[in-house]
């Protein structure tokens, strides 16, 4: 089933993609195309949507076949990419969208894709074509930058920020692949902190058994200054940023450390370790941001706390929000990170009303 000028969601039956499709369908966006290699799964998702809503179809698309991608994108005005792992997909879908004359939203993408699309004047080709690409429209990165920006905007002179992001959740094979490859200078620097306009390496140590409002149990927090955190510090002019990745269970952290030590790209053991953590501790996800306004003495001046059952629904929320802003014409042509072009206050308000998470500003 093909539609002219459709909004196509690649990987639309996956954990993130299905969350995007449900939100766009609820918002009345049409025509919608749910695309991926498994047409049966796409058709099952379409069949499960509320009746009487906007027109939705299913389509087989093979990301490894450029002709298949081109046939898909030529029928779209907007392509939302929720397929993974991102390190394998890279810029393939984005480039097909540009060739087909479509705008593009990626729930992942991150710095490696931004670099690929921007290299050798590539960002200019999007501007010339009048098309926009929005990357990192997920829970992390994405919401993890928008939420602290909203918090900082309420302050008179934000000077320091501590961030804790993570939890316990099952991993899809695609997500496990992205976790494995989420290291190296294009992603961030372990144990580093942002201090007075520059990165300080080996500045922080892991924190064990930390109690935070975003998480239902004590967690282990490992310092990792992501490239997203650096962009956040520069955009808000916050002088000190300490960023931590949170693990609520021990098995995934152990397995991930082993995989990195062996330089492994196999995801099965990571998926198993994450499942073991879920069986022992339950599934939960959180983000907590602590902000100091004016001075770093004493406790934080303000906090934003997010609690959610998992991160996939949050990624679906933000990718759908970016798609809706794109359809509204609110995003200018070019290659962007979601946190740079979405309004932090509006996103925070919409998330509070969405039901995907519980939000508190303290």
UniProtKB/TrEMBL annotation:
Classification via Pfam families: Sacchrp_dh_NADP
Family annotation (SUPFAM superfamilies): NAD(P)-binding Rossmann-fold domains
InterPro entries: NAD(P)-bd_dom_sf (IPR036291), Sacchrp_dh_NADP-bd (IPR005097)
Domain Saccharopine dehydrogenase NADP binding: 8-108
Coiled-coil region(s): none
Name of the protein this chain belongs to: Saccharopine dehydrogenase NADP-binding domain-containing protein
């Amino acid at each position: 089933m093909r539609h002219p000028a459709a909004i196509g969601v690649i990987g639309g039956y996956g954990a993130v993609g299905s969350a995007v499709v449900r939100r766009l369908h609820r918002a009345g966006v049409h025509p919608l195309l749910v695309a991926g290699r498994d047409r049966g799964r796409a058709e099952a998702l379409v069949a499960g949507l509320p009746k009487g809503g906007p027109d939705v179809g299913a389509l087989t698309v093979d990301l490894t076949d450029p002709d298949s991608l081109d046939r898909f994108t030529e029928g779209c005005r907007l392509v939302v990419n929720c397929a993974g792992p991102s390190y394998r997909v890279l810029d393939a879908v984005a480039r097909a969208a540009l060739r087909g004359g479509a705008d593009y939203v990626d729930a992942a993408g991150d710095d490696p894709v931004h670099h690929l699309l921007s290299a050798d004047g590539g960002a200019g080709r999007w501007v010339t074509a009048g098309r926009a690409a929005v990357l990192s429209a997920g829970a992390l990165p994405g919401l993890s930058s928008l939420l602290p920006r909203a918090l900082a905007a309420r302050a008179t002179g934000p000077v320091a920020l501590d961030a804790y992001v993570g939890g316990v959740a099952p991993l899809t094979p695609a997500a496990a692949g992205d976790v494995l490859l989420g290291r190296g200078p294009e992603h961030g620097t372990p144990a580093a902190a942002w201090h007075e306009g520059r990165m300080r390496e080996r500045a922080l140590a892991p924190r064990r058994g930390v109690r935070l409002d975003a998480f239902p149990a004590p967690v282990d927090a490992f310092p990792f200054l992501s490239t997203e955190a650096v962009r956040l510090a520069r955009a808000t002019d916050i002088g000190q940023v300490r960023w931590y990745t949170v693990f609520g269970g021990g098995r995934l952290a152990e397995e991930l450390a082993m995989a990195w030590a062996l330089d492994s790209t196999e995801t099965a053991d990571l998926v198993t370790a994450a499942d073991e953590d879920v069986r022992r501790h339950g599934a939960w996800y959180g983000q907590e941001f602590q902000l100091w306004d004016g001075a770093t003495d004493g406790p934080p001046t303000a906090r934003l706390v997010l609690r959610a059952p998992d991160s996939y629904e949050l990624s679906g929320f933000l990718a759908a929000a970016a798609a809706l802003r794109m359809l509204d014409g609110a995003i200018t042509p070019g290659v962007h990170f979601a946190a740079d072009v979405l309004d932090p206050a509006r996103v925070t308000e919409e998330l509070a009303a969405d039901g995907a998470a519980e939000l508190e500003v303290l």
